[in-house]
Every structure is written in C-alpha cells, then in structure tokens.
Amino acid sequence: MTLGRLLRAASRGTVKAALYLAGLVAAVLLTIVVVFAVQARVRLPDLQPWHRIALAEEFRADRPGAPKTFAEYLALEERLFAELRRRVFDDPKVADRAPTGRYNPAAVPGRLALGTRYNRSYELVHSQPRGAVLLMHGLTDSPYSVRALAEIFHARGYYVLALRMPGHGTVPAGLLDTEWTDWYAAVELAARHAAARAPGKPFYAGGYSTGAPLAALLAVRGLEDPTLPRPTRLFLVSAAIGVSEFAALANIASALSFLPGFEKAKWLDVLPEYDPYKYNSFTVNAGNQVFQLTRALHRELAAAAAKETLDRMPRVTAFQSVVDSTVNAAEVIRGFMLRLPGPGNELVAFDVNGSDSWAGLVAPGPREAYAQLRDARALPFRLLTVANRAPDSSEVAISTREAGSTEWRSEPLGLAWPPSVFSVGHVALPFTLDDPVYGLTPAPAGALTWTIGDLAARGESGALAVPLGMFARLRSNPFFAVIRARVEAALDADERR
Q1: Does residue 265 come out as left (phi exceeding 0), alpha (psi in the -120 to 50 range) or beta?
Q2: According to the model, what pLDDT value does residue 64 have?
Q3: Is the pLDDT of residue 269 over 80?
Q4: Helix residue spans in 434-476 (DSSP H)
Q5: Given CA atoms 444, 448, 452, 457 in this order, what sign does their dihedral have?
Q6: Which is higher by pLDDT, 467 or 186?
Q7: Of all residues in the chain, what percent carry a pLDDT higher than 90?
Q8: Helix (H) or strand (E) run with residue 36 in it
Q9: Residues 341/312, Cβ–Cβ less than 8 Å
Q10: DSSP string covering 51-116, please?
Q11: More confident residue, 392 or 120
C-alpha cells in the first residue's frame, strides 16, 4: 500500500472515530435530558401560578426602553410590585389559600412579603453621609438578607442602598429566564446612584452569596472603566466565587421543558412558599446563571492579572464558613483571595463546633479543611478563624494570623456555641441571632411575627411537604458580633488612611 493510501485510510479512520465519539456524546446527553425530564415530572409536585407567571414589568437589560438610571429602575420596580399585587395577591384564582403561604394576602408571610420594604430595593439615608455603600443579596433571596449589614454601615453615618436584583422578591418564576447580565446591569445603575449620594467620599460595595461576585465584578471592571465608581473596599459574605459545573449540566438537562407535560424540567425544586423574603423553589436557570457569572469573574480577573492592573483592586474583607453546602468554600481562597496583591485584605473563617461533645459526629471533611487552613503557608492576606477555645469547651476564640506570617495570636470572644448547634453555614452568616424571621432567638415582631429560624420540627420523614432539613439548617449566626467588629475595624482603618 502506498503512503497516500495509508494516509487516506488513516484519515477515514480518524473521521469514523470522531463521528462515533460525537454520536456517543450525543446519546449520553440525550439520555441525561430524557432521564432528567422524566424524573422532574414524577418527583416534583404540581406547579403553582407563582411558578408560571411572567411579570411584564421586570427589568431586562437588553429590553428596548430599559431604565438608564437608578431612578428609572425604582419607578419600574414600583410598577412591578403593582403588577405582582394585581396578578397574584388580588386574584382569588391565583392567590395562595394556605395560612402559611407567601402569596396569601391574609397570611403573615404574605403581608410581610408585600407590605414591607425588604423585597424591594431600599435606601438608608443621612443628610451628611460619611460615604456610600451598595449591598447586593444572594440567589433566590431579597434585600432582607443584607439588612443587618446595612444597619452597621448606616449606624456609622453612611448612606446605604440595598439593591433588589431582577427576578427576585416577587415570584419564583422570575428566575426562569433572567440572566446574570440583568443582575450586573442593575448593579451598575445602583453603584452610580449610590456613589453620587456622597461625592468625593468613600464608596463601599458588599455582597452576600451571589451578590459577592457581582460586587467583585464591579470592582474589576472599574479598573478599566473610569465611568464606574471604584469601591474603597469590598465586603463579601459566603461568597459564591466557586459553583459546581452541575449547574451548567442541569441547564442542558432541562432541554425538554418546552414540551407539554415536561415544564417541571425547568425546576430543581418545587416547594411550598412560606418564606416571606426567599424563594424555596429553585429553577435550573438560576443555578446556571450563577455559574456563568463566576466564570465571567474568573475570566476578567485573569485578564486584569495579565494587564498587571490587579494591584489597583480595592481591599477585601471576606467572611466564610468552613463548611458550606451551597458554594465551594475553598474557591474563595484559591480562586479569589490568593489572586489579590497587596496588604489590607482579610478573610474571617468560621469553624464547626469542635467541642468534645460533637467529636464523634462531625464529618472529617470540615475538620480537615480547618486544619489545612490553620496550617497553610504564609498567606498574602490577614486570616482570622473563629473556633472553639479548647476541645472541652463550647466557648469560642478568635485567632489571627497577619499577612505574610505563620504566627497565631488568640483572644477569647466572650461567645459560645448555642446548645445543639454544630456549625454555622452559608445561609446563617449574614443574620443576627435575634433576627425576627431567621433568628435562633428571634426578637418579638408584634402582629407580623413569623419566625422560621427557631423552628424545631420533629416527626417522620415524608410527613411534611418540605424536607425536614430545611428546618434543621441554622439560619442565623451566633457569632455575628465578629462580622460587626471586623466591618467596623475595616472602616476605622480606611478612615485613618
């Protein structure tokens, strides 16, 4: 056989192998799509109106006539909530009848959801502010989740804007088709508005969960865009910097959702909506959008590093639970904090309850993660850990290791683990123990008392329409005083500069 024939035969073999591999991949993806669609149809309960209704007045960045200023955004938001009231709460064919329903206008959760300001963007103002702060909430959340942070800044004399991101605060269906670029476009409008309220003074940006990469992206883009206000510092809580690629795979798996009978494939969870400030149901698209957002952030961080502009990034104060079932906690260090040059950055890590009473029950993963953190080489940022003072004590101490050092110094906090609490976590960090909705020891709230954080449900699995774990998960932070102290210490340091 001549060389030419050998090459042609090899080429045909390569093409056949490539076609076979492509067919195999297509078959695997098709199987995933079909299995996902079928299991969603069988596993998930019936969709309710708030899982289907598309609100016409929601913000879309690419829509003709979209708001160009934050004042226009707020006007659109007013129309959005008027539409929500008209199409959901005031329509007896649509409104929830459950006494615990968020979409029941007579129920306490419904009255909180629609009648308070915390599902909408809101401002805390001063006539002569010391500076301005923009805060962003997390996925499926509302501005309520940054309420405690907002009050810290406002008490220090700062103007605060807590932004409602598109798709949030209304109905879970709002996250069926929103895109992360809509969220970011709203962030830019809000950032310009907030900074203009205190011209020439410090401007801070902060975010909880999904709000954290949005704040970071604002800062990175501000390195190149002189029209964007540049934050003096970022405050990040439970930052969604690293998200599983399953989110993108699930989006592919929902491909049959357009077929009649398979619309549940757009959802990962369909649950009763009893929380006034957070959706319990979760769309496939929502997870995918956070994944796409984090990828965009990492691309732009890499580009800034290549241009050698990262040295102009604002300083960062970050708070993270060592064990976090929502995001990849290690990626906060590996994918973000380690990329930031220069002094002035710090990470506060909250450990699990390491007292002897839990020693045999705590999973090895969190203990190993904490040990790796404590024993890590010298880091370019200040590291603080909140952990048990001693194995035989429920009291906690804060240990500090300065940037570039491996030496620790420790001091007691005068705080202790509450009984039966073995860890903090993703959803707990931004809330105080006495939060009237999510607190473990909630403060009285009068006629609109609705406490979720102190529920201690007991019973047989399957007896409730929600997983028992939803009530077992801690919703408030026994050590929120640490967050308050570190935020104030950062403000003090910045004001001395």
Answers
A1: alpha
A2: 94
A3: yes
A4: 469-472
A5: positive
A6: 186
A7: 71
A8: helix 3-43
A9: no
A10: GTPPPTTS--TTSTT--SSHHHHHHHHHHHHHHHIIIIIT-TTTS--STT-TT-TTSHHHHHHHHS
A11: 120
To the nearest 10°, the Cα dihedral for 140, 148, 324, 45? -30
Domain locations in the chain as residue ranges:
44-313
Rounded distance between C-alpha atoms, residue 422 and residue 147, angstroms: 25
**Could you tell me if 238 and 141 are in contact, meaning their C-beta atoms sit under 8 angstroms apart?**
no
Contact 145/138 with Cβ under 8 angstroms?
Answer: yes
Nearest by Cα to 118 from 426, 438, 429: 438
Residues in the chain: 497
Question: DSSP class of residue 391?
Answer: T
In this structure, the dihedral spanned by the alpha carbons of residues 37, 40, 43 and 49, taken in order and rounded to 10 degrees, is: -140
User: What is the average pLDDT value for the chain, to the nearest integer?
Assistant: 89
367: nearest Cα among 327, 322, 397, 408 = 322
Structure tokens at 168: 């949030």
- What average pLDDT does the segment 179-207 reach? 98
Indicate whether 259 pLDDT > 60.
no
Beta bridge partners of 238: none
Residue % of the chain over a pLDDT of 70 = 87
Assign 29 a pLDDT band (cuts: 50, 70, 90).
very low
Instruction: Give the pLDDT band (50/70/90) at residue 252.
Output: low
Q: What does the block give as tokens for 220?
A: 């990175």
pLDDT bracket for residue 16 (50, 70, 90)? low
Question: What CA–CA distance (Å, rounded) separates 26 from 49?
Answer: 35
Average pLDDT over residues 272-300: 95
pLDDT of 356 strictly over 80: no
Give the helix, strand, coil percentages of the chain, each rounded to 5. Answer: 40, 15, 45
Instruction: Give, in words, the CATH class of 44-313.
Output: alpha beta
Other C-beta atoms closer than 10 Å to the C-beta of 258 total 10
**Separation of alpha carbons 283 and 52, rounded Å:** 11
Supply the pLDDT for residue 251.
57
Q: Is 279 left (phi over 0), alpha (psi -120 to 50) or beta?
A: beta
Please name which of 143, 91, 92 lies closest in space to residue 118, comparing C-alpha atoms. Answer: 143
